[in-house]
Specification:
Blueprint: E1 7-8, E2 13-14, E3 19-20, E4 25-26, E5 31-32, E6 37-38, E7 43-44, E8 48-50, E9 55-56, E10 61-64, E11 77-80, E12 85-86, E13 91-93, E14 101-104, E15 109-110, E16 115-116, E17 121-122, E18 127-128, E19 133-134, E20 139-140, E21 145-146, E22 151-152, E23 157-158, E24 163-164, E25 169-170, E26 178-181, E27 186-190, H1 192-197, H2 202-217, H3 222-232, H4 237-248, E28 255-256
Parallel strand pairs: 1-4, 2-5, 3-6, 4-7, 5-8, 6-9, 7-10, 8-11, 9-12, 10-13, 11-14, 12-15, 13-16, 14-17, 15-18, 16-19, 17-20, 18-21, 19-22, 20-23, 21-24, 22-25, 24-26, 27-28
Antiparallel strand pairs: 26-27
Helix pairs in contact: 2-3
């Protein structure tokens, strides 16, 4: 159903059972999958490719022009997977010549006022809480949860099943399976609750905790720790995920949290 007070360009391609509420705007170079709901005052710009059964709430802007001074008007896209929900006033910019597309996966929740910058890749089953900001070319692997007001520097990557606390400032890569917090972002433990919710059993979680003890808690350099993982722990999917993440890191990886020591005068 398309409300008569909505604007839908005649060239836009809408699937079956798409609902477009009053005052929504849909440009011409847009594709929207079956069953998707476009809320009042939502803006779907040229280059948007939206999957099935998505929900785009009031004031959200999909495929806005990148906030990048190098952008020269090239034709690029913003691709949203199936069953993804984008809440009020969230923004997903389209890509630039760097990668040509911004991607948000399926079954992902982007809460109010969050921003996904140009050329980002957001995986499946992710949650971006209110006011999360992703700079350009950030990569989130599947099942990442970012607490409210988390800000991530351009080119950073966050590994699978990782989680940040609210207000975390991220300037380096966050490995899989862990929790990060503080400023600068630091390793503060294994995301055990999240892993349990996703079906990891006790043996798998213990294995991940052993991996993280070597990587983050025993004081080794990351190069030394990666070598010890290969020497001391059996081959497994979790070990491979961690080693591959470190091997592919371009910005470097966050460090373990080091609490500040009180000055003697304060004691």
């Amino acid at each position: 159903m398309i409300h008569p007070l909505a604007y839908v360009h005649p060239d836009a391609k809408l699937g079956n059972n798409v609902t477009v509420e009053p005052f929504a705007y849909i440009a011409g170079k847009v594709t929207i999958g079956d069953g998707t709901w476009i809320g009042p005052n939502a803006v779907i710009n040229d280059g948007a490719v939206i999957g099935r059964d998505c929900r785009i709430f009031s004031g959200a802007v999909i495929a806005g022009i990148p906030q990048d001074l190098k952008f020269r008007g090239e034709e690029t896209t913003a691709v949203i997977g199936d069953r993804t929900m984008i809440r009020e006033c969230a923004t997903v910019n389209r890509g630039t010549a760097a990668k040509n597309t911004t991607i948000v996966g399926s079954d992902t929740l982007i809460m109010a006022y969050a921003h996904v910058g140009h050329d980002c890749v957001v995986g499946d089953h992710c949650i971006l809480a209110n006011n999360v900001s992703l700079a350009g070319e950030v990569e989130l692997d599947d099942w990442v949860i970012l607490g409210g007001h988390t800000a991530i520097h351009q080119f950073c990557r966050v590994g699978k099943h990782a989680m940040t606390s609210g207000g975390t400032m991220v300037g380096k890569d966050i490995p899989p399976f862990i929790k990060a917090a503080h400023y600068p972002a630091s390793y503060v433990g294994v995301n055990t609750i999240g892993l349990r919710r996703r079906g990891f059993d006790a043996r798998q979680i213990e294995e991940i905790m052993n991996i993280c003890r070597i990587m983050f808690q025993n004081g080794y350099s990351y190069g030394k720790a990666c070598g010890l993982l290969e020497e001391q722990l059996p081959d497994s999917e979790a070990r491979k995920e961690m080693l591959d993440f470190f091997a592919g890191s371009k910005r470097g990886v966050i460090k373990p949290y080091q609490p500040r020591m009180k000055d003697q005068d304060e004691e």
